[in-house]
């Protein structure tokens, strides 16, 4: 069982923000912003590329509700999913990083974008 499945099952403790039948939201253990929450489906899906559109259709309003609950809806937030090796995905269970609580910087995290040919 993956680490996020264990969090959903309560085998690993988490700081829960919200939950419904299909989704779970909890604070990231290593926050990169004043508010850094992870939103995950209870169904194990490895990454965004493997995610059925129907699941995203249900996940979208849940993420919006979480943002509202955290008071991020008015001033804004950043929503990120890292997909696969090049995307820097460490945990192979779909998760959206919901970041906010301050004016966020935007770093491309590529030392020389031209050299990377992107
Ligand atoms: P990613 O690099 O996109 O796969 O992000 C994985 C995220 O999971 C990182 O931001 C970690 O800090 C976070 N994380 C890993 N283990 C835990 C945990 N037990 N509780 C909360 N967040 C975690």
Tell me the distance between the termini: 36 Å
Oligomer: single chain
CATH superfamily: HIT-like
Q: Could you name the ranges where pLDDT drops below 50 across 5 or more consecutive residues?
A: none
Largest sheet: 5 strands, antiparallel
Short note summarizing the structure:
The chain has about 120 residues and is α+β, with helices and mostly antiparallel strands.
Description:
This protein has three helices and five strands, in the order αβββαβαβ. It is α+β, with helices and mostly antiparallel strands and 118 residues long. The chain has a single domain (3-100), classed as HIT-like (HIT family, subunit A), CATH 3.30.428.10. A five-stranded antiparallel β-sheet has the order 1-2-3-5-4, with helices on one face. A hairpin with a 3-residue loop joins strand 1 and strand 2 (23-27). The longest helix is centred in the middle third of the chain and has 17 residues, at 53-69. The radius of gyration is 15 Å and the shape is globular. The N and C termini lie far apart (36 Å). Adenosine monophosphate (AMP) binds next to loops. The site of adenosine monophosphate has 12 residues, from loops.
Key descriptive features of the protein:
5 strands; 118 residues; 24% helix; globular; 5-stranded antiparallel β-sheet; HIT family, subunit A; alpha+beta; 3 helices; binds adenosine monophosphate
């Amino acid at each position: 069982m993956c680490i996020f499945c264990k969090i959903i099952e309560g085998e690993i403790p988490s700081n829960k923000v919200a939950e419904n039948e299909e989704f779970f939201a909890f604070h990231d253990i290593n926050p990169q912003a004043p508010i850094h929450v992870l939103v995950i489906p209870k169904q194990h899906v490895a990454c965004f590329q493997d995610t059925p559109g129907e699941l995203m259709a249900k996940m979208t309003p849940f993420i919006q509700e979480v943002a509202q609950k955290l008071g991020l809806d008015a001033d804004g937030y950043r929503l990120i999913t890292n997909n696969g090796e090049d995307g820097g995905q460490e945990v192979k269970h779909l998760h959206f990083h919901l970041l906010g609580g301050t004016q966020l910087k935007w770093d491309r995290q590529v030392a020389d974008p031209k050299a990377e040919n992107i």
